[in-house]
Amino acid sequence: MENIRLLVILATMFSDNRSSIRETVELPARLADGREGWTKNISATGVLLELDGNSPLDSEVSFEIHLETSVGPLKLVARGQVVRVQPNGNRKGIAVQLVTSRLEPAE
User: Fold this and answer.
1) How confident is the prediction for the chain on average, in pLDDT?
2) All domains of the chain, ordered by start, with CATH?
3) Most buried of 23, 24, 67, 106 (most Cβ within 10 A)?
4) Would the pTM of this model clear 0.85, i.e. be above it?
5) Are 43 and 8 in contact (CB under 8 A)?
6) What's the CA gap between 87 and 98, in Å, rounded?
7) H or E element, residue 103
């Protein structure tokens, strides 16, 4: 059921009728700089990532989120702007407002 809700949210990302519904979900994420972490929540307009290290406020980040679906593995390839940084123990919560995103088959 979780994958179905997530696919509905992802589908809104590619429609004219964007939604700000936020879904709490932990999925593996990898930044372009090689850091790895997890999503904490995701919506059509943004994602909260939990990562080691820091991404400065207002910086741009590129990342991939991997999904297992009934049609096979997919990845969300995205770029966005860091709009909030919050400490979370040894890790950081990085809130990213999406600038671009696309869904691709995972290799």
Assistant:
1) 85
2) 2-105 (2.40.10.220)
3) 67
4) no
5) no
6) 21
7) strand 91-105
